[in-house]
C-alpha cells in the first residue's frame, strides 16, 4: 500500500524516504555534493554513480564482449546491440529504437516540436546537435580541419566530402552508366540525364531545368541581373564562366 502522497503532483509512495527524494524534483534541492568537482545531486545513489567518472570504476560487464560500464542502464542498452532488441516503438510510423532518448528525438519529426532555439536569429531545431552546428554559422567557428590542405569546415560531414578531393574517392555510382561521383547530390543531378526529369521551372516562361543553378542563371535573362564583375574594368557578366573568359583578355 502506498501511504505517502506528494502534495504537488499527487504521486504516491510506499516509503517516506522515497517521497522525500521525490520532493526534490519539485524544490530543486541537491544536498549531495561531489568532493572532486563540486557537482551536486538530489539523490545519494546519483552521487555514487557519478563518483565512478572520477575513480574509473566500471562494475557492470557485458558477458558477450566483456565491455564495462559505469551504470547498469548503460549495460542494458549495450546488450541490445548483441540481441538486436529494440523495445521503444514510435506510435506514428512504428519505427523501433534500442534507446528511449533517440525515440524522443525521432518523435519530433512527427510532432514538429523544435525545443532548441538560436538566440541570434530565433531559428528553432529539433536536436541540440543541430543547434550547435547552426550557431557556428553566426560565430564563424570551423572546428573541423583538413590535414592535407588546412582548409576548415563548420561541419564534420563537409570535411568528409572535402577529403574526397584529395583521396579521389567517388562512392556514389550511377546504376545506369556506372559513372561515379564524390557527392550524392551530384549523382542525383546526373540521374536526371537518364530520366529527363527537370524539376526546376521558371515562373516567367515555364522553361524547366535539371539543376537549380541552371534555373538561377536562366532567370537572369529575364531580370537582366549581372552579378559577376570584372575587377579590372568593372564590366558585368551574367555567368561566372563568362567573367573568367573575359579576365583572360586582361592577362594575355
Automatic annotation (TrEMBL):
* Database matches in InterPro entries: Snail/Krueppel_Znf (IPR050527), Znf_C2H2_sf (IPR036236), Znf_C2H2_type (IPR013087)
Question: SMART domains of this UniProt entry?
Answer: ZnF_C2H2
Q: What one GO molecular function would you report for this record?
A: DNA binding
- Name the principal localization, coarsely classed: nucleus
Q: Which domain of life is it from?
A: Eukaryota
C2H2-type domain location, by residue? 4-31, 32-59, 60-87, 88-115, 116-143, 144-171, 172-199, 200-227, 228-252
Per UniProt, subcellular location reads as: Nucleus
Pfam families per record = zf-C2H2, zf-C2H2_6
Q: Which GO terms describe its biological process?
A: negative regulation of transcription by RNA polymerase II; regulation of cell differentiation
- Which Gene Ontology cellular component terms are annotated? nucleus
Q: Does the keyword Acyltransferase apply?
A: no
Family of the protein in this entry: Belongs to the krueppel C2H2-type zinc-finger protein family.
The record's listing under PANTHER family reads:
CHORION TRANSCRIPTION FACTOR CF2-RELATED, ZINC FINGER PROTEIN
Summarize the protein's role: May be involved in transcriptional regulation.
- The name on file for this protein is C2H2-type domain-containing protein
Source species taxonomy: Eukaryota, Metazoa, Chordata, Cephalochordata, Leptocardii
